[in-house]
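Preliminary data (for renewal application), alpha-D-glucopyranose complex.
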Amino acid sequence: MHNHLWWKRGIIYQIYPRSFQDTNGDGIGDLEGIRRRLDYLTWLGVDAIWISPVYPSPMADFGYDVADYCNIDPLFGSIDDFRLLLDDAHGRGLKVVMDFVPNHTSIAHEWFQQSLSAKDHPKRDWYIWRDPAPGGGVPNNWVSSFGGPAWTFDEATGQYYYHAFLSSQPDLNWRNPDVCCAMHDVLRFWLDLGVDGFRVDVIWHLMKDPDFRDNPVNPGYGEGRGEIEKFLQVHSTDHPDVHGVIAGMRKVIDAYPDRVLIGEVYLPVERLVTYYGQDLSGAHLPFNFQLLEVAWQAQRVADLIVEYDRSIPDGGWPNWVLGNHDRPRVAARIGEKQARVGTMLLLTLRGTPTLYYGDELGIGKIHIPDHLVHDPWEKNEPGLGLGRDPERTPMQWDASEAAGFTTGTPWLPLSSDHLSRNVVLQREDAASMLNLTRALIALRRSSAALSVGTFALLKLQGDMLAFERRYSEERVIVVLNLCHNEECWDMPADVVGKILLSTGLRAPDEPVSGSICMQPDEGVVIRCH
Ligand code: GLC
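Predicted structure:
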């Protein structure tokens, strides 16, 4: 198992830094807070942390609007704090993955200020400037992912600039070789400091159609959906030239040993897997977000696993995500009981799992009163359920007033949920989601079959999903009951084993053969003799 690189056998834990741990009382998490919680992360047993952006930023999109790629925003600390965190993490054997946001900067970035200053400024072409359409108006029909036009007019120079997200997040022009060089230098800056890799923000957006053709109308668009869905993003994203850009980043990263490149890609599977790149020259792990969207039924989940498995190019390594800072939390999507089953799935599938902070406690949907909404998407398109604040609320450490997160007022509200759902309480409770997650992590780490073994789907029965993982002589079977009823699953004739772990109340070591009666909402891991 140790012949496999850390990012293949390991488990990644995503930290949304604003919400993890505050240490200076301003209600916003910081790097020192993450450092002080490293003992918790090693206790939990994860291998790596990925930290959402901590760069200097006006925070219009909470750090995804970067004003300086080679520094730390004072809200989060300093470069020295970052070094300290990195050293302490490495000292504990934890890897640290940075968020890299190459598609766009903040308008506050000096590159954009220079680009804006004059049409003939050498930095003009670092961003995407177009003349108005003949007769006036926006250059084409591209829409911002957060609603509204993706073009903003600059009176002084008479042109529009393109922004796939907020007007304060202008897109960089990756067709300009100077942009590539500058961004490669950014990667080297952090690699030289010692970071273990990058999660690349909206990597499928980097190259656009050079002719800026209109996007076609989406025939499937319906009321109540975000404006971005009115059009199919075929010309504004996923241009084939993007793979050359990613291969360029890979070359930079591959000059350093053992680093990982993860790409954020929201595309259907057949497009997603192209991000492994020609001859695997692309992202090591193009994020696989399918579990965030699938209808929670055994058949549907089985179908997507099979399709994904079949689509991955030879030598490509799979990965799975159950939650992140952009999508409703797993317990909010499928309920608290099934979230336990989902976590068992995440941590037993073949491929690197990414856990989202707080999901190990089973945090569900936290209500955000209108006057406390922060997310710009919710502000732009209110009431459609697009807002991302509910999955970004502070980590629930204990039952004190601000959940042990801050001594001040948390930037996003906590609900009373933290009184009964927090790390302190759940550590004491053997049956808690936290202890289940920890046990699953320990099991995965101790088992070559679960970490790096082969995968085979077993017979579907009722709403139960079952699969087998094998490595050499080790054979493990996972059975997951995705419904709220008791159901029996008939074991393959040659299986005689014992329970290693259940999401329910079943005792470990219980012998199993023939048929196993699953409790409602139960998942089990079985070791075969
Ligand atoms: C990614 C980030 C998201 C951000 C967007 C624009 O999707 O995960 O939080 O708003 O990119 O940078």
